[in-house]
Amino acid sequence: xxxxxxxxxxxxxxxxxxxxxxxxxxxxxxxxxxxxxxxxxxxxxxxxxxxxxxxxxxxxxxxxxxxxxxxxxxxxxxxxxxxxxxxxxxxxxxxxxxxxxxxxxxxxxxxxxxxxxxxxxxxxx
Length: 125
Description:
The chain contains five helices and no strands. By secondary structure, the chain is mainly α. The chain has two domains: 57 residues, no CATH class; 52 residues. The longest helix is centred in the C-terminal third of the chain and has 33 residues. The termini are far apart.
């Protein structure tokens, strides 16, 4: 019987350590329902209950993102066009400059993709 309780204790210890590290490495904006610092305190001070609460109510939900890009809020387009709070030009000269920057960036992306296709084609031969 003590072996069963010892094994259960090890499982609880492993769960507690997992949840503690999970809270620590989770980004602040991904924590649900409470701030990250409060989650750390809850998991530290209430090991069993806090760990279960973290898994149920605090851990970020896994979201599949279109395009496979690893940042939050991915829309599948280029992020510099969709980023909230990005610079919006008020001067027509600024608008023209930003348009040319976007065009140059698009051209560089096309050239890079073409270079990758050529490299793949050369490897296949």
